[in-house]
Design goal:
Elements: E1 2-8, E2 12-18, E3 36-39, H1 51-64
Length: about 90
C-alpha cells in the first residue's frame, strides 16, 4: 500500500492510502467534498539508522566540532597469502 498526499483548497493536506497498481484518480476531500490536487513529497526514509542519516549527522557535527587526529593512520595491511592458492604456483617476474 502506498500513501499519497493531496491538498484541498479549503481544508488543507490529507492523505490517501491505496495499492500502487490502483487506477489513478483525483479524490475529493472527505471533509468538504471539494476537488483535491496531488502533492508530491520525497519518499519516506524508513530506517532512522541509515547510512545517509549518519553521514549527514557527521557532516553537520564536523562543521562545529571537527575531529582531531593525534597520529597518522596505519598503512593498509597486505594479505600474507594470495586469496587463491593456485596463484602461488604462478611464475614470479
Amino acid at each position: 500500500m502506498a500513501r499519497y498526499d493531496y491538498a484541498c483548497g479549503q481544508c488543507g493536506v490529507f492523505e490517501v492510502v491505496r495499492p500502487i497498481d490502483a487506477p489513478i484518480h483525483e479524490p475529493t476531500c472527505a471533509t468538504c467534498g471539494g476537488a483535491a490536487t496531488r502533492v508530491y513529497t520525497p519518499p519516506a526514509i524508513t530506517s532512522p539508522h541509515s547510512v545517509l542519516r549518519r553521514v549527514r549527522d557527521a557532516a553537520a557535527a564536523s562543521a562545529h566540532e571537527p575531529t582531531v587526529q593525534h597520529r597518522m593512520p596505519a598503512p593498509p595491511r597486505r594479505n600474507a597469502h594470495p586469496p587463491n592458492p593456485l596463484h602461488a604456483r604462478l611464475p614470479r617476474p
